[in-house]
């Protein structure tokens, strides 16, 4: 008969082996407790609309401007920066952006390019879309969003041919103002004499009010900083007399249930889209451009002849009630 092996082991070693066996049998040797996540994903989605109706490059827009014009989208892109959510303590929390070709974190700033055109039809860009700012925030409850329309000055004047994405987008470069187009929204109104044709729909006029006999295809709204000049005292190489970024907020915004509309009807509410009375086509942030005079107030601003802007903080644009506002998903 074999000897009773446990009795041949020293008592201390026997106790140690017994304890080890019990821990293994009960799973006590492994730490199965999962730590609670400290962050949560967030996606803040945008959608182009006319009123409350979503539109795209394939849509015929109706009821735009002071004449109720029909139009087609030609471009619909804009930058937003330093997006923040408001938590249940009333604190604004910066969204840590996911790194991709449409979002960038640099020099302590965050910027994202929202691209709502897909290159089809009259749309001038490419087929890639970027409809949402995505990233993470600390775990919590949030009910509000704030962001700046435009590119922070520390990033605005980088050379687009060598800049990191999305600041490398050549279509959004604004070389004559040494920076970026913060907003590039363009529409083609319907031809006045040929229904369903969206070229030659904007009649041009001289300063004295007489018709030139020529027409434009597109009404441009390009927003960017103005009065920009080389400035060696700035680390980014330029200074501008007017910073035309615009910070707006939406109270009670829930990104899980809502998205942000970019309402083209509200944007062009005071514009006559079928007439051009001087300056650049449409409005390219010119202080004396007649078409710009009708557009400044819709973004809560006034501009002098030099292109310097003054913001009206009480304007509903800044409080998420006009162009940018919440819309149920």
Automatic annotation (TrEMBL):
Q: Does the keyword Signal apply?
A: yes
The residues forming the signal peptide are 1-25
- Tell me the keywords, alphabetical order: Signal
Q: Report domain Copper-binding protein MbnP-like positions.
A: 39-284
Top-level taxon in the UniProt lineage: Bacteria
| Cross-referenced NCBIfam families | MbnP_like_WxW
Query: Per its record, how is this protein called by name?
Result: Metallo-mystery pair system four-Cys motif protein
